[in-house]
Design goal:
The complex is a heterodimer of chains A (430) and B (221). By secondary structure, chain A is α/β, with parallel strands linked by helices. In chain A, 31% of the residues lie in helices and 26% in strands. In chain A, the strands form eight sheets. In chain A, strands 5-2-1-9-21 form a five-stranded parallel beta sheet, covered by helices on one side. Chain A has a four-stranded parallel beta sheet with strand order 13-12-11-17. In chain A, helix 3 packs parallel to helix 10 (332-351). Chain A starts with a helix and ends in a 5-residue tail after the last helix. In chain A, 48% of the residues are buried. Chain B has a nine-stranded mixed beta sheet with strand order 2-8-7-4-5-12-11-14-15, with no helix packed on it. Chain B has one domain (14-220): Immunoglobulins (Immunoglobulin-like, Sandwich), CATH 2.60.40.10. Chain B has strands at 14-17, 21-22, 28-34, 44-50, 58-63, 69-77, 83-91, 96-105, 125-130, 135-141, 163-170, 173-180, 189-194, 200-208, 213-220. Chain B is an all-beta fold and 221 residues long. Classes of the chains: A alpha/beta (430), B mainly beta (221). At the A-B interface, strand 24 of A face strand 2 and strand 9 of B. Bound molecules: flavin-adenine dinucleotide. Chain B: It comes from Pelagibacterium luteolum. Chain B: InterPro entries: Ig-like_fold (IPR013783), Ig_E-set (IPR014756), SoxY (IPR032711), SoxY_sf (IPR038162), SoxZ_dom (IPR014880).
């Protein structure tokens, strides 16, 4: 039997291979301007595709260090043993083959905003009319005493999907039943506010099935977290007292890490020893943003919310986690929406069209168990040069809901993932 | 302003450590230090902190009764909206220093805010003393620091209930004193520094507006 999914897949492949469809982009003299994009993740890949969709005459070069992009969204399902790693990987084939984006698999190292050039690790330079950066985050290696890159090889952060995520999974698999998993969560702002709590949920689900005497301790640098009431009720319901959360005011803030011994020390001097230790340190915009001179002293990028152009350097646009777009959260959903706004603004600037006034929606789904989903949604627009959250819109899942409701939200979460990865990378559901 | 008493503050030497943007106005970390070469007989006597756009702008005052003080603090404050935080430092010479720093307050999507405290452990204290020159004293008391401005789910005003004072003594000598008001975050948190001139016992006393107190003692070198 041929599954419906397979048919769709091969139909898509045939579509992509049709010369009539891909030819025009190659044949066109790309004279409407030259855009260089750094980062093929949620923000950057979206912008590349949507610039080409709106105007194929614009030359778009995408500089991305990895040959394949692995998403942080759903990496928690992989950590919980609910998905394989491959299923969260996405290729850039649609961007290059269908949309005619030029792909350079390399690190970008420097930007000269006056000369309008980007320098690659190889030393090559690329000229641009407009530069778009969506580099995501870098860790602040000076944020917690003792937690540097070497320490992350023993106590992974797994806050960028890739080898760090695989390392954490292998440690969880190797842990004996009855072990203690400790997650240290950072203060705001950081990538994906509900992410740490979804992570412990799905690891609890794995423990419940495979290592039921194990415990989970969250040491938090905050007194409150995203969807807290829903998470805590879900933990109680699904995992009893397996998960313990220690707030900032109950001495949850980790100030020192001894990765060698898997020990952490909190502010008031408590020492906790883990069997598997996951430290999510404080963060900042990816280094290329700083190199381009677009970050402020806080380490993030102030942008003009109508266009996502930098407030500090003209012709450089920045989207995604690297930006200061609060009240929009640092989410893949936001990065995707911002990538589209920046794409419109860039196309408009290059061709003299008017850019539409932006408004955005964001929904963050989290899974507490494979069939237990919750969400928080918001709608945003620009008022007086600032992004504001539209009053009376959005909201969180109800506190009282039956199993069917939670199961439906878990299905919507999968639907969301399939839809957004198709929108960005043209991927078909795994 | 009464504190100024006609004096002109000098915009110098007050160093504020505040985030440019806070995604949770209920808990904004604030660091203060005074960076100014002090004359022999000139030391910081008091530090006053204000949030002009809060319903009650005066956040706190910190007093150093003797010259062996290190005017450096860390605390957590409430900011109702985006605004500058203003700090005045009174010197024993009569001079007043001023500094300010702007904070943008937003509530980020994906975050649900609550000004939380642990109802079971109200009045529980935590203290960490780290000897050195100067000795650091890190303190926290579990307490709602209820402003009297909030309503509960039934729309009734939650009565005001505040930790108003923290005093630190070595032996009988008062070495540090803090007046805390409504804009100090729940679970009042304070790091301050002392320079004991001889070994003794450090006694801390927190006082609530009801008169109820919490205490802590530890020997310091
Ligand atoms: C555990 C976890 C779960 C999450 N779950 C969700 C979720 O369910 N829903 C949701 O909406 N969001 C979720 N997120 C958040 C989401 O992953 C991020 O918000 C999103 O990836 C941000 O997109 P971005 O484009 O800013 O950065 P990224 O997607 O990280 O893309 C940045 C890319 O730039 C590349 N790059 C960086 N610097 C350079 C350089 N100098 N040269 C070349 N390439 C470079 C990197 O290799 C990377 O591929 C989650 C995050 C985590 C950690």
């Amino acid at each position: 039997m041929i599954s419906r999914r397979k048919v769709i897949k091969s139909a898509a492949a045939a579509f992509a291979a049709t010369p009539l469809l891909s030819m025009p982009f190659v044949a066109r003299a790309q004279t409407a301007g030259r855009v260089v994009i750094v980062g093929g993740g949620f923000g950057g890949a979206t912008a590349a595709k949507y610039i080409k969709r709106r105007n194929p005459d614009i030359a778009v070069t995408l500089v991305e260090a990895s040959p394949r992009f692995y998403t942080c969204p759903f990496s928690n399902l992989y950590l919980g043993g609910l998905r394989d790693f491959d299923s969260i990987g996405h290729s850039f084939d649609e961007l290059t083959d269908t949309y005619g984006v030029e792909l350079i698999t390399e690190w970008a190292e420097g930007v000269d905003g006056d000369a309008h050039t980007l320098t690659l690790a190889s030393g090559e330079t690329l000229g641009y009319d407009k530069l778009l950066l969506s580099p995501g985050i870098d860790m602040r290696w000076d944020g917690i005493e003792g937690y540097d890159e070497a320490a992350a090889e023993l106590a992974p952060h797994a806050w960028k999907a890739g080898p760090q995520t695989e390392l954490l999974r292998s440690q969880l698999e190797a842990m004996d039943d009855g072990g203690l998993f400790i997650l240290s969560a950072p203060a705001d702002p950081f990538r994906c506010p509900p992410g740490p709590y979804e992570r412990v949920s799905l690891i609890a689900n794995y423990f419940k099935e495979s290592k039921p005497s194990s415990k989970i301790l969250i040491l938090d640098s905050k007194d409150a977290f995203s969807k807290q009431g829903l998470f805590q009720a879900g933990w109680q319901e699904l995992y009893g007292d397996m998960i313990e959360w220690v707030s900032l005011s109950n001495d949850g803030r980790v100030i020192r890490v001894d990765a060698e011994n898997l020990e952490v020390e909190t502010e008031f001097g408590e020492i906790h020893r883990a069997d598997v230790l996951n430290v999510i340190p404080p963060q900042k915009a990816g280094f290329i943003a700083e190199a381009a001179g677009v970050t402020n002293e806080g380490g993030w990028v102030p942008i003009n919310p109508e266009t996502f152009e930098s407030q500090q350097v003209s012709d450089i646009y920045v989207v995604g986690d690297a930006t200061i777009a609060a009240p929009m959260p640092k989410s893949g959903f936001s990065a995707n929406a911002q990538g589209k706004v920046a794409a419109s603004a860039i196309v408009a600037a290059l061709t003299g069209e008017e850019a539409p006034a932006p408004s955005w929606a964001n929904t963050c789904y989290s899974l507490i168990g494979p069939e237990y989903g919750i969400s928080v949604a918001g709608v945003y627009r620009v008022e007086n040069g600032e992004i504001i959250s539209v009053e009376g819109s959005g909201g969180v899942s109800p506190a009282e809901a039956d199993a069917e409701f939670r199961a439906a939200e878990a299905r919507y979460a999968v639907g969301w993932y399939d839809a957004i990865t198709q929108d960005i990378w043209g991927s078909q559901p795994a | 302003m009464a504190i100024l008493d006609g004096r002109d503050p000098i915009a110098q030497g007050v160093v504020l450590d505040l985030p440019l943007i806070s995604e949770n106005g209920a808990v904004v970390p604030l660091g203060i230090s005074i960076d100014r070469p002090m004359a022999e007989d000139e030391y910081v006597q008091a530090i006053h902190v204000f949030a002009p756009a809060n319903p009650f702008p005066h956040i706190a005052s910190f007093r150093y009764p003797n010259a062996r003080s290190t005017p450096r603090l860390e605390t957590r404050v409430r900011l109702n909206e985006s605004q500058p935080v203003v700090v005045l430092a009174e010197l024993s010479s009569g001079a007043v220093l001023v500094g300010e720093s702007e904070v943008r307050v937003t509530v980020s999507g994906c975050l649900t805010m609550s000004d939380t405290y642990d109802t079971e452990s109200v009045f529980q204290t935590r203290v960490r003393v780290e000897p050195g020159a100067p000795t650091s004293v890190l303190t926290l008391i579990n307490h709602p620091q209820e402003t009297g401005l909030r309503t509960n789910a039934q729309g009734e005003i939650i009565p005001k209930r505040l930790i108003e004072k923290l005093e630190a003594r070595i032996g009988d000598e008062l070495v540090f004193e803090a007046d805390l008001h409504r804009s100090i975050s729940a679970n009042p948190y304070l790091r301050f520094y002392i320079q004991p001139d001889a070994p003794g016992t450090l006694d801390l006393v927190w006082t609530e507006d009801t008169g109820e107190t919490a205490e802590f003692s530890q020997d310091v070198a």
